[in-house]
Design goal:
The structure is a single chain. This protein has 264 residues and is an alpha/beta fold. The protein has a domain of 178 residues. 33% of the residues lie in helices and 17% in strands. The protein contains seven helices and nine strands; from the N terminus they run H-E-E-H-E-E-E-E-E-H-E-H-H-E-H-H. It has a five-stranded mixed beta sheet. A two-stranded antiparallel sheet has the order 1-2. Strand 1 and strand 2 form a beta hairpin. Helix 2 runs antiparallel to helix 7 and helix 3 crosses helix 5. The longest helix is centred in the last third of the chain and has 16 residues. The chain is globular and about 65 Å long.
Amino acid sequence: MLRELLTIYEQSQVNPGKPGKRSSLFAETLIFNEGWLLRAVLKEWRSRAGPSRLDFLPFPPGVKVYSEAQLYTPFKARTRNDERAEAHTHVDGIVGDFEIQGTKSGVVMNPDWRYLAVFEAKMYSPLSRGTKRASQYDQLSRTAACLINAILQTDHQDRTAHLVVLHARDNRRIDAGQYTRAYIAGQIADRIQGYLGSGHPAQDSGRFFQEWGHVLHRIHIQFLTWEDVLAEIGDDDLDQFYCLCQRFNRPDRGPHGCPVDPEE
């Protein structure tokens, strides 16, 4: 997959062989971004069944691997203009025992699910700080709540799920130490208070509001750098692709550790 993307990029070059005038027919970030990087990493993880230092690997046989999925929110609109509601949450990647139902990308857990891992992928951007209608309810807490909501639609709340944030090692806009379990619990509790305190009755969500705290303790939340992940995989095409992701996504376009193209 990555070899094909690298070839497309090479074939898109204008003025090849002319130093200082070479350019691409499209913005390089259309290819070299965290979305394609995550898809490539998930593909590698799926094909490798051996031992890993990462506790969410190896993936069990038969699980579904999907990118750009939606987790259904417990904070659904109760009226047409419900100001405390929110849209479903998009996640960059998800692996587990689930089906796509309800929408083109909506995740519904299998009743007898065994495994579930959700991945958020970043290069140099931060985790978002809030939503339009809940400005302090950050991306990781929102994803955790939607993950809990998905699990509570089954009868297996005692199983461990994983929530993994992947980011560049030199991304200074993500402070992993901030996202303790207590911090996320506080974020979800505040969100629930605001939602239920609006005076509208909750619809089909009583179980979430009663049991979310128990399930949160079954979610293993961790932050990993792309560098550590790729070092374990050890694939040259993947390493080259990541270098180009760094090169074209770094905010200051500063040093990126990748070989310089002599034609530029």
